[in-house]
């Protein structure tokens, strides 16, 4: 078994997930880069990870799987354990937005099922499966084993969009799931955190780029710029490396201060 810690990052092929993979690789992790359909993008993330990894810290790989499907989740975990024999970190990042962004008066069950399956059910049951594996590994722990799980939620966990109701509900649910797992896994030495990004420049926000450019220029966030995948990746790396010891179930906002509620002057 390698001394190198291993991280499984869902939706690691693009956007925020790519930023997380690269920062974890830079921090010495071998990264299991999960993707759904875009293999070329996953390979590009792999290349970027190899670029920043120190010479002893290579060894990342890509792994296809739909986190909304039980069989795929099982395959992901088996692949990671088979390849590296250890699993130190899970980052539940894979996510999709509301299909068609319809007003909740018109929203479809089809969109609800898809969004909840990926964003909430996938993260919840992958956490369950990985937690079982981590508990087993902890019985004869690999070198420098510090297991942690990070859920990538969103400001949509509390900021309401009536044309993305299913998305908001999935993120609010993920927020609660973080607390449940933090409570359940603390006695097993597994820390669980929520990282809550604001407006981050990725494919997901590309369609609304002009709208956000204007809102950001007008001061929507106290820090007046787009967030980057690297901003989120750095927060995840800091957490899993133990930058905030004696803590679990915490929420880290990576949102340019959006969550601050200034009273109008
Ligand atoms: P993105 O650019 O659209 O990338 C989505 C990623 O998720 C891709 O890697 C995609 O894989 C993967 N994915 C989609 N469905 C999947 C499935 N069923 N199984 C496994 N992987 C799947 O999105 P993003 O903006 O980086 O968002 C990443 C996370 O951050 C999401 O949970 C999102 O809700 C959250 N977030 C984003 C923002 C933002 O402003 N962008 C803000 C707050 C929170 P393929 O490449 O193979 O399609």
Largest sheet: 7 strands, parallel
CATH class, named Alpha Beta
User: Could you tell me how far the N terminus lies from the C terminus, measured between alpha carbons in angstroms?
Assistant: 59 Å
Helix/sheet category: alpha/beta
Shape: globular
| Range of helix content | 40-55%
Number of strands: 7
The radius of gyration is 18 Å
CATH architecture: 3-Layer(aba) Sandwich
Strand order of the largest sheet: 3-2-1-4-5-6-7
Describe the structure in your own words.
This protein has 265 residues and is of the alpha/beta class. Helices cover 45% and strands 13% of the residues. It has 8 helices and 7 strands, in the order E-H-E-H-E-H-E-H-E-H-E-H-H-H-E. It has a 7-stranded parallel sheet, sandwiched between helices. Helix 1 (15-26) packs parallel to helix 2 (39-52), helix 1 (15-26) crosses helix 8 and helix 3 (70-84) runs parallel beside helix 4. The protein is globular, with a radius of gyration of 18 Å. The N and C termini lie far apart (59 Å). The mean pLDDT is 97. NADP nicotinamide-adenine-dinucleotide phosphate (NAP) binds at residues 10-11, 13-17, 34-38, 41, 66-68, 93-96, 118, 152, 154, 197, 199-200, 202-205.
């Amino acid at each position: 078994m390698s001394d190198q810690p291993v991280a499984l990052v869902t939706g690691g092929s693009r956007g925020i997930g790519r930023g997380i993979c690269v920062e974890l690789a830079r921090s010495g992790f071998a990264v299991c880069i999960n993707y759904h359909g875009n293999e070329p993008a996953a390979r590009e993330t792999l290349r970027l990870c190899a670029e920043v990894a120190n010479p002893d810290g290579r060894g990342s790989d890509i792994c296809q799987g739909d986190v909304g499907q039980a069989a795929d989740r099982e395959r992901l975990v088996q692949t990671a354990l088979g390849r590296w024999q250890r699993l130190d970190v899970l980052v539940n990042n894979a996510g999709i937005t509301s299909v068609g962004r319809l007003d909740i008066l018109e929203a479809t069950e089809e969109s609800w099922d898809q969004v909840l399956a990926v964003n909430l059910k996938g993260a919840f049951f992958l956490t369950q499966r990985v937690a079982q594996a981590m508990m087993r590994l902890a019985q004869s722990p690999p070198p420098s084993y510090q297991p942690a799980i990070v859920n990538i939620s969103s400001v949509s966990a509390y900021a309401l969009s009536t044309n993305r109701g299913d998305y908001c509900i999935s993120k609010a649910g993920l927020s609660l799931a973080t607390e449940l797992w933090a409570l359940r896994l603390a006695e097993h030495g597994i820390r669980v955190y929520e990282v809550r990004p604001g407006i981050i420049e990725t494919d997901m926000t590309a369609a609304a780029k002009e709208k956000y450019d204007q809102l950001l220029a007008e001061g929507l966030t106290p820090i007046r710029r787009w967030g980057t995948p690297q901003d989120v990746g750095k927060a995840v790396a800091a957490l899993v490396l133990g930058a905030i010891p004696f803590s679990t179930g915490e929420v880290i906002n990576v949102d340019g201060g959006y969550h601050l509620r200034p009273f109008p002057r």
